[in-house]
Design a protein that fits this description.
Elements lengths: L2 H18 L3 H22 L2 H12 L3 H24 L3 H18 L6 H24 L8 H29 L7 H19 L3 H19 L8 H27 L6 H7 L1
Helix pairs in contact: 2-4, 2-10, 3-4, 4-5, 5-6, 6-7, 6-10, 7-8, 7-10, 8-9, 9-10
Membrane topology: Multi-pass membrane protein
InterPro entries: Surf4
Main location: membrane
Length: 271
């Protein structure tokens, strides 16, 4: 069996699975996406004083101002996910959650850590896809200029492209370049191939489905916080674990909304 036929068969299998679970895929994607915000909001809620003290000392801000910033980050992460799950004011919820990511990147100096920065970009990519899904699900208004509608669709496709590219950053952050054993080489090759396919939109649904499974498996083995004993290590690994689950959710949204016009799949149809 040649490679093309094998991929086609795998694509048929994944399409059948996705088609049979069409209503469940986007719901599961949204649930996985918001888990990281629930977890982080819960973490802040029970450690408010530590977070306020850190920001106060790190940025020389008045305690009251630091407290307001921390409460903003906490409450938004506990409330906005419910809006997303209930499909109410999703765009506003995405913007507010995006602002929390930016504030955390600034206040906790994550911009100086490339790994954390890459992970935050991945989560922003998830929010971008979620916002795009919401726009695409809106019923088109009657009497609209066809040219305007085409321009909007093209813009949405570009946003989907940006979201896809941001998602693959998470996989990059999970890869450890610490050896050249056989299994490590296999991990690098699989990760690279799936990442490129998702980024350029080649066999997008199959690649996204495979990458979601691959990320989930890597996450279980690399971020096994439940088997740790050190409290600090548990916190860091739990944070990474739920962030990775959010990106898995983002990949499920890619399966749901498709690759958009700016993708290899769509260009292939036009050839």
């Amino acid at each position: 069996m040649d490679t093309s036929k094998l991929l086609s068969n795998l694509e048929d299998i994944s399409d059948d699975f996705i088609r049979n679970n069409r209503g469940k895929v986007p719901i599961l994607g949204r649930i996985l996406m918001v888990l990281t915000f629930f977890e982080d909001g819960h973490r802040i809620l029970f450690n408010i004083n530590n977070h306020v003290t850190f920001i106060t000392n790190s940025w020389s801000l008045p305690y009251g101002i630091s407290f307001l910033f921390v409460m903003y980050m906490c409450l938004i992460q506990l409330i906005a996910p419910f809006c997303i799950l209930l499909r109410r004011k999703v765009m506003i919820a995405c913007v507010l959650l995006g602002s929390v990511i930016l504030l955390q990147t600034l206040f906790y100096h994550m911009y100086s850590d490339l790994r954390f920065l890459i992970r935050n970009l991945s989560v922003i990519g998830c929010l971008t896809l979620l916002a795009t899904e919401t726009i695409m699900d809106e019923k088109p208004r009657t009497g609209r200029n066809e040219l305007i509608y085409d321009d909007e669709f093209q813009f949405k496709s570009i946003i989907i492209l940006v979201g896809r590219c941001y998602l693959v950053f998470m996989l990059i952050s999970l890869i450890h370049f610490d050896g050249f054993e056989f299994l490590k080489i296999v991990e690098l090759l699989v990760s690279f191939i799936l990442s490129v396919c998702v980024a350029v939109g080649a066999r997008t649904k199959l690649a996204s489905f495979a990458l979601a499974i691959w990320l989930f498996i890597l996450n279980i083995f690399l971020n096994d916080w439940w088997s740790q004993t050190d409290a600090t290590k548990i916190d860091f690994m739990k944070y990474d674990f739920f962030q990775t689950l959010s990106v898995v959710g983002g990949l499920l949204l890619v399966i749901h909304i498709g690759p958009g016009e700016v993708s290899y799949d769509d260009m292939k149809k036009q050839w």
